[in-house]
Design a protein that fits this description.
Blueprint: H1 6-33, H2 39-55, H3 58-63, H4 66-81, H5 102-127, H6 129-142, H7 147-155, H8 157-164, H9 175-189, H10 191-205, H11 213-229, H12 240-252, H13 259-274, H14 282-296, H15 301-321, H16 326-336, H17 339-350, H18 356-373, H19 379-403, H20 408-426, H21 428-432, H22 434-447, H23 455-472, H24 475-495, H25 499-513, H26 521-533, H27 540-556, H28 558-565, H29 568-577, H30 583-599, H31 603-611, H32 617-630, H33 638-641, H34 647-668, H35 670-673, H36 677-693, H37 698-705, H38 715-718, H39 722-731, H40 735-738, H41 741-756, H42 762-775
Helix pairs in contact: 1-4, 2-4, 2-5, 2-6, 4-9, 6-9, 6-10, 7-8, 8-15, 9-10, 10-11, 11-13, 12-13, 12-14, 13-15, 14-15, 14-16, 15-16, 15-18, 17-18, 17-19, 18-20, 19-20, 19-22, 20-23, 22-23, 23-25, 24-25, 25-27, 27-28, 27-30, 29-31, 29-32, 30-34, 31-32, 32-34, 34-36, 34-37, 34-41, 36-41, ...
């Protein structure tokens, strides 16, 4: 190359750029790995990078590679955030100084001195005028959208949106993300000065809608800075209500023809998401809601996605706070007026999206809209709207997943979530709509195809949808699929996939169709499944589902259920004896044992003997079990204390089970229970009184044991459900529910006191029995 020629200059520039990048990477690595050793070089490099950032003009920024800009901000952020460079005493390792070479001690002392000098220099920087100038340079240069980024907005809107909304990360390769991280670290070190610069710069940049394009870019950058630091800005520094109404709304009302204007509007929408908790007045909330609704319908995909983000935040806030205060009630009423059009616009946007992540965003908004919408409108209107849009959405997702491997799973999962919400809200009305029913069964079939690769990600979601359809569907809606789908379920069981969900569905089948569904050749397969879930190999979730399934099966066919459980229950009792059983499994295990014992009292000795086989025998097992059962007398869950719906009935049922089992232990081992006679009888009497005063209904039992996903009080949802009607019939015959507890406690008292008479005064025992029976009269 000729000396001084353009080609040679270009080559040297390229070489210099690569050298700068490598040097910067070395500096970052040194700060990370050897902060004390690098301390003498920190200040010189700090000065170089700060001055470089401050002297870059707009045109220079366009020419510098994004990588170099990222590395400069990352180095500064690392230095400002490194604990080694924050003010404080330097701890020297001088404890073993007498035995160490003098050179090492001197080197450590010198290193400590360099660290202190570095800390002092960095501390002085935060109090110097350069600090404010650096913040201004970061905002006006690094947060400013470049021409290239605006071109990306137009050419790849979904990609631009995703990059612009990455989580804050100092290791990001995106210039604006790194600048945000650095800005927050600067604010962390000097919050007052940073806040003052950010807000004053934003005020200066606000030239109004009539400003030129470059001024609007600067306004967007300043709002970006407020957006990034909003959660750290001291309370009272910014009046968000006035800021939104007076300073932001005017930009939202501008025509969205220019991409610079649209970028500013997108930033404002994101800022509204960040400060949504500050929207307390009707004016500010109304403006935010109006903006979200309008931009959701924008032909600009980036703006529409910002609208999705804002509306999702507003809808979620509405659901979580449920109108406790008058302001919240007014906001809720305003939001719910627009839910119908919002749902339609969300589906229209979703049909245009090509990226799985952005499509998932839109589907999540649709799900939360449905949750809010079904509480206030006619179910028929909601179902009719979804019957139009959901089949189209399903076909769109299928088409996109065929083009791109792995695209469909998260979106199909989101679509399933929408259908789950809808069915739980409107029940069989969803399945009566032919278009929706067809999509529901197609989705189930697609997800539970265990031979397909997508089943790895979608099988659990598909099984949840399957179970929900079985729970809420009327006989007309599900009768054709019940028998035809049973083979598929058994195939999934055989494959050993999603044991928890398959047991939940199997339980629904047993309650709905009877024990015939698992008799014959199928019994051996189901027994293997139950034993696996209740063994060391099973998870707590699987074990809980297995016990729940056995309880329901016992109500329908106790003989079959015992055959399925006869080896698993003793194993769990051995766990109880050795105090190794998970607390979450104790209640369902005791309920199942109580049910078996009420069916066949002699099984108690079988269980106690098998449970005590690990050591101590049946007597030790009975003793341990009695102690556990007696502990239930004063045990109340947090949910009971907080009066959570259904918690009182569940707690009462648990205590009734305990009294039943204590009664049977007293019947078969009265002498052993005599030592607990006062505690057992007091527990029994208190439970009798509780039942008389607060008896629980069969609906309470269904809520606790039937696996309903919506409370039984929602009669409008369960009215058409074939499962609900059948389950109510079965659970109304539950021996635990129908048992006369007063009679049981009376017999228990007789068993225990009869045994106690051998070692007690006859007159005292008779008086105690009379007193107990009298206390049970309410």
């Amino acid at each position: 190359l000729a000396a001084g020629s353009p080609a040679e200059v270009s080559l040297w520039r390229e070489l210099a750029a690569k050298s700068c990048t490598l040097i910067n990477k070395c500096c970052i690595a040194a700060v990370d790995k050897h902060p004390k050793g690098f301390a003498p070089a920190v200040v010189p490099f700090l000065q170089v990078y700060v001055e470089t950032i401050m002297h870059l003009d707009y045109h220079a920024l366009q020419g510098v590679s994004q990588k170099r800009l990222v590395l400069m901000t990352r180095f500064l952020a690392k230095v400002f955030h490194a604990p080694a460079y924050k003010r404080g005493p330097v701890v020297l390792n001088l404890a073993s100084a007498p035995g160490r070479p003098p050179q090492e001690v001197q080197q450590e002392e010198a290193e400590a001195q360099e660290v202190q000098l570095c800390r002092r220099a960095i501390g002085d920087f935060f109090e110097s005028p350069i600090f404010a100038q650096l913040i201004e340079a970061l905002i006006t240069k690094f947060l400013l959208l470049t021409d290239e980024e605006l071109e990306e907005w137009e050419s790849d809107p979904e990609g631009f949106f995703l990059v612009s909304n990455l989580d804050l990360d100092i290791e990001s390769e995106v210039r604006r993300c790194c600048a945000e991280a650095l800005l927050l670290f600067l604010m962390e070190r000097n919050i007052e000065s940073t806040t003052r610069v950010v807000l004053s710069l934003a005020a200066e940049a606000d030239k109004g809608p009539g400003a030129d394009r470059q001024a609007l870019r600067l306004t967007e950058a300043c709002l970006h800075a407020i957006d990034a630091t909003a959660l750290l800005i001291p309370t009272g520094s910014l009046d968000y209500e006035a800021f939104i109404v007076n300073d932001l709304v005017k930009y939202l009302q501008m025509p969205s023809t220019d991409v610079v204007v649209r970028s500013l509007q997108g930033r404002i929408l994101h800022l509204l998401v960040t400060v949504s908790s500050e929207l307390q007045s009707e004016a500010s909330y109304g403006h935010a809601l109006k903006a979200g609704l309008e931009f959701l319908q924008s032909p600009d995909v980036v703006l529409a996605l910002y609208g999705v983000k804002l509306l999702h935040k507003l809808c979620l806030a509405d659901i979580l706070r449920k109108g406790v205060k008058s302001v919240q009630e007014a906001q809720s009423a305003l939001l719910r007026q627009h839910l119908g059009p919002m749902l339609g616009s969300s589906f229209q946007l979703a049909s245009k999206l090509q990226d799985a992540e952005t499509l998932q965003m839109a589907l999540k908004l649709i799900a939360i809209e449905i949750e809010a919408l079904t509480e206030q409108t006619n179910d028929t209107e909601t179902v009719a709207m979804l019957a139009t849009h959901v089949p189209q959405m399903w076909q769109t997702i299928l088409a996109l997943s065929e083009k791109e491997a792995g695209f469909g799973a998260p979106c199909q999962s989101s679509l399933i979530n929408i259908l789950l919400l809808l069915i739980e809200k409107v029940g069989d009305a969803c399945l009566r709509a032919n278009q929706l029913r067809e999509v529901v069964f197609q989705l189930i079939g697609f997800c539970v195809n265990v031979g397909a690769s997508h089943a790895t990600y979608l099988l659990e979601d598909g099984l949840k949808l399957w179970r929900t359809v079985m729970l809420y569907g009327s006989e007309a809606s599900i009768s054709d699929s019940i028998q035809s789908s049973l083979g598929t379920l058994l195939g999934i069981i055989q494959a050993g996939k999603e044991n928890h969900e398959t047991l939940c569905i199997l339980k629904v089948y047993v309650l709905l169709c009877g024990s015939e569904v698992i008799r014959g050749e199928r019994e051996a397969l189901v027994k293997l499944l139950v034993e696996h879930c209740l063994s060391e190999k099973g998870t707590v979730k699987e074990a809980f589902a297995a016990l729940d399934f056995l309880y329901a099966t016992t109500l329908v066919d106790p003989d079959l259920s015992y055959r399925l459980a006869q080896s698993a229950v003793p194993f769990l009792l051995q766990k109880v004896a050795s105090k190794q059983l998970s607390r979450a499994l104790l209640d369902p295990l005791l309920s199942l044992i109580a049910l078996f014992v009420l069916w066949n009292g002699s099984l108690l000795d079988v269980f106690l003997s098998a449970g005590g086989s690990g050591g101590g025998g049946s007597d030790a097992m009975a003793d341990e079990l009695a102690k556990i059962l007696l502990s239930f007398k004063s045990l109340r869950s947090v949910h009971e204390f907080l009066a959570v719906p259904g918690a009182r009935a569940a707690g009462s049922l648990k205590r009734k089970v305990a009294v039943i089992l204590l009664g049977f232990i007293a019947k078969y081992q009265p002498t052993r229970m005599a030592k607990y006679k006062d505690h057992v009888l007091q527990f029994g009497v208190s439970q009798v009184r509780e039942e008389v005063q607060n008896s629980f209904s069969v609906e309470d039992l269904l809520d606790a044991k039937a696996g309903l996903t919506t409370g039984s009080e929602h009669a409008e949802v369960w009215g058409s459900s074939a499962f609900f009607a059948k389950a109510k019939e079965v659970f109304s015959r539950d021996p635990i529910y129908t048992l006369n507890l007063r009679e049981l406690v009376g017999h228990t008292a007789e068993y225990i006191l009869q045994a106690a008479r051998e070692n007690s005064d006859q007159q005292h025992v008779d008086a105690l029995l009379t007193n107990i029976m009298g206390n049970m009269k309410v």
